């Protein structure tokens, strides 16, 4: 009996050891070759003014807390997008809000009060009226002592149509700034008449409801929401050690906080290769996920990434980051 127990015990430990070896080999990047190349650089709102993230909330007026300006560009404008692409961005993120006359303005805030001299929402104004506003009006680096962009932002709020017309061959990440399904349907109607090859270069993210509505109308478009992220990552975390890739991980985009990324099976190279096979783009953002606007904005930030990292990087300072990769 003792001999049988010893045999069973030894077989159990052998099985456990083999299972651990399988875990390691199947999820280690040490045995993975990944095509050499620079990371995919995503410029948040183009080349924009940056600000302190301390005690920031969804309704914080970030224009009132910018750092002393180092360049003349304002977020979500045509010049800022041009500068970002010229600096080496592979894609630019922009925010859209509906207007009174059925268009989409490229603008970040819930209301106009923070950046402009106007009040209310974009939906209270036509696109032509929004063009008359000075979007540089509210920017201050010194608590209201000076306003370096006041008087310089009139006419700079673009429509989404203008952006796509001026940059027909570029990649964009479009952010629907609400959880209104009607906005997803409106965007689907707008994109349905755009050239197919242009739409294929776009990714749209936002609230679950508008993203569901958009995807229902345009099944082929790349989208991301909290729901799509969960439907991909939760089953992957549960079974990804086997190499299993959930169908929800196919043709989507994943924004992975840097502090969570190391817990994903196969991180970094094997995980990135698996997502490549699923035609899914992986973008690493800064921090722990409490604020997805946090990015890699300095050479010191980039040092926190794995050596030789070649996935996507979210940055608020494309002018600083692109040169590090020869872009």
Question: Helix coverage percent of residues?
Answer: 25-40%
Beta strand %: 5-15%
CATH fold group of the largest domain: TIM Barrel
Shape: globular
Q: Number of DSSP strands?
A: 9
| Largest β sheet strand count, sense and barrel closure | 9 strands, mixed
Secondary-structure element sequence? HEHEEHHEHHEHEHEHEHEH
CATH superfamily (homologous) name of the largest domain: Phosphatidylinositol (PI) phosphodiesterase
Radius of gyration: 23 Å
CATH architecture assignment of the largest domain: Alpha-Beta Barrel
Distance between the termini: 70 Å
What is the number of helices?
A: 11
| Structural class estimated from helices and strands | alpha/beta
Poorly predicted runs: 15-24
CATH class of the largest domain: Alpha Beta
Describe, in plain words, how this protein is organized in 3D.
By secondary structure, this protein is α/β, with parallel strands linked by helices. The chain folds into 2 domains: 40-177, TIM Barrel; 225-327, no CATH class. It has 11 helices and 9 strands. Strands 1, 2, 3, 4, 5, 6, 7, 8 and 9 form a 9-stranded mixed sheet that branches. Helix 5 packs parallel to helix 7 (208-217). The longest helix is centred in the N-terminal third of the chain and has 26 residues, at 2-27. The model is unreliable at 15-24 (pLDDT under 50).
């Amino acid at each position: 009996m003792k001999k049988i127990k010893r045999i069973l015990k030894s077989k159990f430990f052998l099985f456990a050891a083999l299972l651990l070896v399988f875990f390691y080999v199947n999820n280690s990047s040490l045995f993975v070759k990944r095509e050499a190349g620079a990371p995919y650089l995503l410029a948040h709102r183009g080349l924009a003014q940056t600000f302190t993230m301390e005690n920031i909330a969804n309704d914080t007026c970030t224009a009132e807390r910018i750092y002393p300006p180092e360049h003349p560009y304002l977020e979500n404008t045509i010049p800022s997008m041009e500068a970002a692409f010229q600096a080496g961005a592979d894609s630019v993120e922009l925010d859209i809000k509906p207007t009174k006359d059925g268009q989409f303005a490229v603008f970040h805030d819930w209301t106009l009060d923070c950046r402009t001299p106007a009040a209310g929402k974009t939906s209270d104004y036509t696109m032509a009226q929004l063009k008359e506003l000075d979007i540089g009006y509210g920017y201050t680096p010194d608590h209201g002592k000076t306003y370096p962009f006041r008087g310089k932002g009139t006419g700079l709020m673009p429509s989404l149509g203008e952006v796509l017309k001026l940059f027909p061959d570029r990649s964009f990440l479009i952010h629907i700034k609400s959880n209104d399904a009607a906005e997803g349907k409106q965007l689907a109607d707008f994109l349905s008449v755009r050239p197919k090859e242009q739409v294929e270069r776009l990714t749209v993210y936002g609230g679950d409801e508008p993203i569901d509505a958009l995807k229902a109308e345009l099944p082929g478009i790349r989208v991301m929401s909290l729901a799509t992220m969960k439907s991909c990552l939760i089953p992957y975390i549960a079974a990804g050690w086997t190499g299993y890739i959930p169908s929800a991980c196919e043709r989507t985009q994943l924004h992975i906080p840097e502090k969570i990324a190391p817990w994903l099976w196969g991180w970094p190279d094997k995980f990135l290769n698996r997502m490549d096979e699923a035609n899914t783009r992986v973008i690493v953002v800064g921090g722990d996920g409490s604020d997805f606007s946090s990015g890699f904005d300095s050479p010191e930030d980039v040092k926190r990434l794995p050596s030789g990292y070649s996935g996507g990087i979210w940055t608020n300072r494309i002018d600083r980051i692109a040169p590090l990769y020869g872009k």
